[in-house]
Amino acid sequence: MPSAPCKLRRLSGADLPAMRGLLALYAEAFEMPAEYLDKQPDDDWLGHLLQRPDFISLIAEREDGQIIGGLSAYLLQKFEQPRQEIFIYDLAVAEAWRRRGVASQMLGWMCREADRLGAWVIIIEAEKGDEPAIQLYRKMASSEEMAHHFNLTPQRG
After folding, report:
1. Angle (CA) 13 5 51, round 5°
2. Residue 15's domain spans which residues?
3. CATH assignment of the domain containing 56
């Protein structure tokens, strides 16, 4: 299958429609519409977030502007040593564009950006059973850490 003809673009505070398009892509790709669509932040919140140097939102788009992939990550300042790490929170490619190198292209961009930012490592997780993602990350990773991921719910009021 030929590679996807797309360009990569890091979103800025002026890219609110593209960020909302990326949220729609995440909702569809992860089959989680309520989480990504029902309680979206207002434009001020998203614009501020996109302006932050420690938040990275990257889209892969076709020439006609259709968003076919995206990646959202956080630059984390470490406390135990004077270094930074990048945590990729979400990465998705529209179903029709999978297996065409879009995710590899975005991860390659992220590796170059991490080097530019002086990040020590990039951390990315894959859901159990998501074999295409696991295979891709194994192919690109320099190491694989076996860890458990837990979500703790804050105790409210």
Report:
1. 10
2. 7-140
3. 3.40.630.30
